[in-house]
Amino acid sequence: xxxGVIKQWTGVPVRVGIAPTKTLTKVAIYQVKxxxxxxxxxxxxxxxxxxxxxxLTPVGEVWGVGRRLNQHLQQMGIVSALDLAQxxxxxxxxKFSIVLERTVRELRGERCLEIEHDVAAxxxxxVSRSFGQRVDHLSTLQPxxxxxxxxxxxxxxxxxxxxxxxxxxxxxxxFNDKKPQHRGFxxxxxxxxTNDTRDILHGAKIAxxxxxxxxxxxxxxxxxxxxxxxxxxxxxxxxxxPDKLKNLAAKTMxxxxxxxxxxxxxxxxxxxxxxxxxYGFTKxxx
Length: 286
What we know:
With about 290 residues, the chain is an alpha+beta fold. The protein is about 45% helix and about 20% strand. The protein is globular, with a radius of gyration of 25 Å.
């Protein structure tokens, strides 16, 4: 009933997998996705149901098996999840790692990964993106990094945390050998922990300037927030006024209404203007 209502009201499909272990549950979910069914529950309980689902699941779709590991397993003739489940766990541990051994045991129905009821707080938040077009000017890169800061700070407040450091990184494309390469990373530390977008924007701007070098075509940039502390803990600096206005209600309202993410539109306009000016257009109407 609830699955149908969610699909009707939001258009979001609800797929449920039921199995003895977390890894087998992921296999059940994969079976639902493969059949392209909007809302459905798949359970893998009996040995026959589990074996059939594993035989129809490529080993690369097993939870925890990445691209490179998938290549190694394929070369060994381990093509399906069933092939992996039939391997000797001790051999897998010796050949690969204890992590993959646990995956094999989970595929066999042995529970190795418990459900996490209390999720640990994040230790860092990263927002980054590769650019569709190369960025050559600081005036174009600055608003893009600012938008990353806005998004990262929204996540920080959602986690009810504050950070003491913001880092900015930029790099050119490592796949273009014909152009000069450059990587830059720089950090800015605050006098006291903060989750105020204005503070972090200021720190990111200072961190970006030294690592930006002209005459390079940048392909990616990002922002990293770190050195977290609880939002309930107030630690002030001797050199900072503790009564400085921090309008938490305004910040919360901006997060709720998405006002801060309007910087994304500003970023697009600035980028558009930069490209237009490059080709001799002086006015843009939007």
